[in-house]
Amino acid sequence: MFIRDAWYVGAWSHELDTTSMMSRRLLGDNVLFFRTTGGSIAAIRDRCSHRFAPLSMGRREGDCVRCMYHGLVFDADGKCVEEPGRKGVSPNTDVRSYPTVERYKQVWIWMGDPAKADASLIPDCHYQDDPAWASIPAYIHYKADYRLILDNLLDFSHLTYVHENTLGGSATIAHIRPKVERNGDTVRLTRWYLGEPGIAPYLNGFGTFEGPVDRWHIYELHIPGNVFLMDSGSAPAGSGAPEGRRVDEAMQFRATQIVTPEDEQNSHFFWSYAHNFNIGDEDFTRKLAARIAEGFEEDRLMIEAQQDEVNRSPNDKMAFIIADNGLALGRRIIDERLAAEQVAAG
Questions:
Q1: CATH code for 124-343?
Q2: Could you tell me which residue ranges the Rieske domain spans (predicted)?
Q3: Residue 167's pLDDT is what?
Q4: Which end of the chain has less neighbouring CB within 10 Å, N or C?
Q5: 7-119: CATH topology
Q6: Distance between CA 142 and CA 211 in Å, rounded?
Q7: Cβ neighbours of residue 293 under 8 Å, at least 6 residues apart?
């Protein structure tokens, strides 16, 4: 069900410090994260090799973790370095460690074969730490299969209905057919809504211009890793945005939404919504994030209700409509990658 040879986001950088530990379930594995005194990120299996007690119930001792059941000590690489009552340690006492990279204010973790962990495969999320853009790191926990969340992200026709008074605000969105493209394991969708009477409801009071609007959503889903990157915005109608001209009055955003499966029924949703105007106005950044969060809460309620119905009738098939072209392509790529990993595993 999960593509394992991939970089996933396991945490925001600010969640980890040099004194504490954090356990998070990823792809069904309980992983213990901590930041060493040198600042690097350690990620080891949150399970003592001895009697399977959670190491997160243990304690930090410098750059090591002591299991508080029988006292075994593990270093940042998962190697058992101390066994009480014995000189040296018993065989087979090490625990699994995972490759990590800290980038774009996030901790990325490779859940598959460590030999394949190439950091260059991490998608470009630089808007999260680019000084020309401002955003706030955020997190939502979903009680839902990660694929239902990806379906939602690949079908913006729902903005007309789920987000009628927040992120959407236009009947046009549901009627526009996006341009759907595939580039390797990436799905790209392009949507333009030209000559709209006004900006989306979530931007009310934030407008940088008046009059008709050209709106756009240009977004990519990078599979595996489930990294959704979006270029969106609003510009004065007829000012040239579809041709690539972004005038100074344009309100531009770069959204980063990353879905990491927790297990078959739960998911982690890491997101930020960067803007390139009103830079330095922290109050504006907070207010904008709060309005986006309101819209995302609408998504969460809908998707979790959807998951509940899926659980009630797991063998029933969903109908396919014309708006599903993007999400169907996303599902196809996931299935292809899962099949390829199964073949490779023999």
A1: 3.90.380.10
A2: 7-109
A3: 96
A4: C
A5: Rieske Iron-sulfur Protein (2.102.10)
A6: 38
A7: 138
